[in-house]
Design a protein that fits this description.
The protein has one helix at residues 40-43. By secondary structure, the chain is largely without helices or strands. The protein has one domain. 0% of the residues are buried. The mean pLDDT is 55. Residues 1-44 are annotated as: Disordered.
Length: 44
Amino acid sequence: MILNRFPPVTLGDPEEPGKPPLPNQPGEPGEPTLPDRAPPDPVA
């Protein structure tokens, strides 16, 4: 990916061994439990 060439653009990409995996990273088991989707559920 081209984003892999830019460290500031890669927000903890799985292809980046030097960056920790983010909980809200796409493809991660924590994707459905994103902070953006969690609040709307209890509020609604």
